[in-house]
Design goal:
The protein has one domain. It has 6 helices and 6 strands; from the N terminus they run βαβαββαααβαβ. By secondary structure, it is α+β, with helices and mostly antiparallel strands. The two termini are about 10 Å apart. It has a 6-stranded antiparallel beta sheet, sandwiched between helices. About 40% of the residues lie in helices and about 25% in strands. Strand 3 and strand 4 form a beta hairpin.
């Protein structure tokens, strides 16, 4: 029986991450497997262009990649407003003091890697996460790398 794994890739921006999501969708990964987390720079009111608004961006990505149709806005301690889509959005709701890193630990991502991802998102980078069985982990890893992720890791589910 295959073990569940978490695979993540870090992208310089949300548009590059959206390309990765489209690639994953083409590889038959489902909306229950693929998530995205990115800082919502528009939430602070610094941008007025709706093209840069996290929700408008998510709707555009959702139209092109049905995997992210359920994009939502959250506030994460230590980061501020983010947009999240996929199963990770529910996991991050109400994470409190644990922040993004704490929410990712439930996905089998070690605290050290979670803190790095939290810092990446805080800097404005986007993270695409894939939660799949170990038999497809390398396929997800390859799709993220081929889409331009500069940091890709695979982690087994903690405690199993």
């Amino acid at each position: 029986m295959a073990q569940e794994c978490s695979v993540f890739g870090v992208f310089r921006d949300r548009d590059q991450a959206a390309q990765a999501v489209r690639r994953l969708e083409g590889a038959q990964f489902t909306e229950r497997e693929v998530s995205l987390v990115a800082r919502d720079d528009a939430a602070g009111g610094t941008r007025r262009d709706p093209v840069h608004d996290g929700t408008a961006w998510g709707a555009g990505v959702g139209g092109a990649a049905g995997l992210l149709a359920g994009l939502g806005a959250l506030a994460i301690p230590g980061i501020g407003p983010i947009v999240a889509a996929g199963p990770i959005a529910a996991a991050l709701t109400g994470v409190g003091a644990g922040g993004l890193a704490g929410g990712l630990m439930d996905w089998g991502i070690p605290a050290e890697a979670g803190h790095r991802l939290e810092a990446d998102v805080k800097r404005g980078e986007a993270v695409v996460l894939v939660r799949c069985d170990s038999g497809r982990a390398r396929e997800a890893e390859r799709a993220l790398r081929d889409s331009g992720a500069h940091d890709v890791e695979v982690h087994g589910e903690r405690g199993r």
